[in-house]
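Quick one: co-fold with zinc ion.
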Amino acid sequence: MAGKIKIFDTTLRDGEQTPGVALTVDNKIQIAQALADMGVDIIEAGFPMNSEFEFQAVKKIAKEVDTTICGLARALQPDIDSCIKADVNLVHTFISTSPQHLKYQMNKTQDEVYEMAVKAVEYVVDHGLPCIFSPMDATRSDFSYLLRVCKGVEEAGAKVINVPDTVGVMYPSQMREFIAKIRKEVKIDLDVHCHNDFGMAVANTLAAVEAGCNQTQVAVNGLGERAGNADLEQVVMALEVLYKIKTNIKTENIYKTSKLVERLTGVRVMPNFPIVGDNAFAHESGIHVHAMLKKAETFEALKPEMVGARRRFVIGKHVGIHGVDAKLKEIGMDVSKEQLNDITKKVKDLGGMGKKVFEEDLVAIAEDVIGKVPEKEAIVELIDMKLNFELGEKPVASIVLNVRGKEKKATEEGVGPVDATLSAIRSAVGEKDITLDEFHLDAITGGSDALADVTIKVSNAGKMTLARGVHEDVVMASVIAFINGLNRILKI
Ligand code: KIV
Ligand code: ZN
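Sure, here it is.
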């Protein structure tokens, strides 16, 4: 096995072929920059021949992003010319070698395809650029023909041969054997590109590394055609932690890069996705949490900090007293042993009734038990509000509050009605240090009359609280959440 593996990222090329994904040039630059910052060795920025837009995007990335930028080209001169004109540092050229593709996709003979492959590589090399060659659908190709093509392109000057499992039909032991056989015959570097049609992409990529590949093609969040490509996060962390093989990836950038790609592509990461899913470092079961609080390794295969994520204790019906205690401490609430028992029982009862218990519910339950914020003693109360929202104008909100028994008024504009209203509330309260750190909006039911469920995080002088507001109108839900939060934070 190689001592170090190069990471070739194809989020912006194969990843962008994910159904429904269309990135703007700016989006692509942002992602490319994040990939470069994370230490990816090669970024496949796109397929310049595909469109003028794609050409411009690749050219801009090649100009602005400081790592090896690769362009994809079919084994055709105009495609390669397009990569050269886009100023990439590396050309990845490909042609299919499987009987299915030869017959139905290209209607060409093996000899014709061999010629095209060799000529394409020679053309790239003659133009002074390094070349990666991919025999597309390699894993379904006739093996002796595949080897003939690999040796031909090696002789033609290819720097790397990439072995694509184009339709994701391999399994790990088979992949290991397949790559080992190629490794014996070919001297140049070997790369691997696995699709996830049977959920084997990461395992097959690692099997290829075991058999001698020293580069892997991966995509952030496993994006890519159909079921996607091998996932960057999983491949890198498995290499680093399980195989103890180094990469150049700054692993602490992994979580934020995944979030950026999630946001810009609009493809949500499954909660139970390894490494970067919402639940990847979440612990709910009481037994687990108890042990985790003593020693994190008991139920954690890797530390969340390694990938820039954080451990979360979820409050649900499986929560135990230690989990509730840890959560309360995190929120900054001190409770006695009896109070802790009471709070835990209430949380478990709610969970048992099928209710999802959020952090803010815990605050409410705890406050109820402690009697810290008696309902009638609210510091801030809404008396009146008016919202003026004209097309083309900034919305303006006027608020009247009762703050500690005194009437306070304020009018503010904002980028939207929620922003204007919350700004007016903050001005009327007059506490300059109060900040709204997080704002999260969920629709509880479908349709435009859905109940809006707003969760916010408010802080003041180093203290933080969570609060929630539910209303059929999103502005009112936000107002309720903010005023709930203010009543809590001003009491802490
Ligand atoms: O899946 C595939 O075969 C590809 C090639 C272009 C490498 O994406
Ligand atoms: Zn692919």
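If it helps, The domain at 6-265 is CATH 3.20.20.70 (TIM Barrel).
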